[in-house]
Amino acid sequence: MAEPARVVCLGSILVDIAVDVPALPERGGDVLAAGTRTVVGGGFNLAAAVARQDVPCSYAAPHGTGRHGDLVRAALAAEGITVTGRQRGDGDTGFCVALIEPDGERTFVTAPGVEAALTPDDLATVRCAPGDIVAVSGYDLLYPGSGPALAAWAAALPDQVRVAFDPGPLVLDIPADRLAAVLATVSVLTLNQREARLLGAAPDADGPALLAAVRSALSAASVLRPAAVLVVREGAAGCLATGGDLGERVVTVPAPRVRAVDTTGAGDTHTGVLLAELARRRPVEDALDTANRAAAISVTRVGPATAPRRAELRPAPGAV
Question: Kind of pairing, strands 251-253 and 239-243?
């Protein structure tokens, strides 16, 4: 069997500082935290999901000089992820403070660092081989520095390099020219249900109708190639997909039923495992089934980077 292709991750990685609070403080007030956790997050969740499938993975975005940058590099090394991005000397990696209330509601304050200031010089060091999959996040297209540089770089990639794009929850805030430039290059576009409704201008749609709305909206704007696989993740219900090797077919892939305790990072797990399976040249439907099962396992664990390892994933009944 041929060696899997490489997944090159460009989604910016930062440090998450989670603070458990009894309630949000009033303006100018204070509360005592019940607990805190400092973990590496952002693009790390997807990269870790890829690496845990024993697929070559590299992190090609910049990282900082300082304690946060040190945490990022240590976490990447622990997962066996190769760091090819530059260590920038002009600042540290950023961080995100998450205030978590007892009912699980999360309130965020993000302080971006050098990972949010991707430059053409940073991207000039990224070397992609034919067959590689480059993972791009919509968050990075939003940044005033990173966005234009990343969109221009992705648009110039050769056809033999596959681009996977997850636009994220702020999809409608991405400047239209940047979004169109990246969408025109993608081989895999993956969205959750909410993002699909926003992008497809279909607030009440679900299932195949939602998939069709997204495909129609993007095709009308001439920004989605027929060769692209379009995936809509529907949480506990699984996912739907069309395009690419599926052609005009719409496939619905169910997810196992589990008792979820923490859905943080489930989308990243799904995307990371999907890309790992595609890097192994698995058929799209099989790759989606494995991604569903991985995401189902991840929500039974507490934390953001909870993707299972390859050995934990067993073929679904009847799978070849």
Answer: antiparallel
Mean pLDDT, the chain, integer: 92
d(CA 23, CA 12) in angstroms, rounded, equals 30
Mean pLDDT calculated for residue range 103-110: 84
Buried b (16+ CB within 10 A) or exposed e, 259-293: eeeeebbbbbbbbbbbbbbbbbebebebbbbbbbb
Three-state DSSP state, 107: strand
CATH superfamily of 7-12+44-64+117-308: Ribokinase (3.40.1190.20)
Q: Are 43 and 137 in contact (CB under 8 A)?
A: yes
Specify the pLDDT at position 50. 98
Q: Positive or negative, the Cα torsion across 107, 51, 286, 223?
A: positive
Q: Which positions ≥6 away from 237 have C-beta within 8 Å?
A: 254, 255
Element (H, E) at 195: helix 193-199
DSSP 35-61: EEEEEEEETHHHHHHHHTTT--EEE-S
Q: What is the pLDDT of residues 117-173, one digit of tens each?
A: 999 999 998 999 999 999 999 999 999 989 999 999 999 999 899 999 999 999 999
Q: Are 141 and 110 in contact (CB under 8 A)?
A: no
Instruction: Calculate ∠ Cα 312-315-320, nearest 5°.
Output: 150
Average pLDDT over residues 222-233: 88
Sign of the dihedral defined by the CA atoms of residues 298, 301, 307, 312, in that order: negative
The answer to whether 173 touches 147, Cβ cutoff 8 Å, is no
20: its two tokens? 């458990």
Burial class (CB in 10 A: 0-12, 13-18, 19+), 75: buried
**Cα–chain-centroid distance for residue 17?**
19
pTM assigned to the model: 0.92
- Listed by start position, the domains of the chain span 7-12+44-64+117-308
Closest by CA position to 83, among listed 67, 70, 66:
70
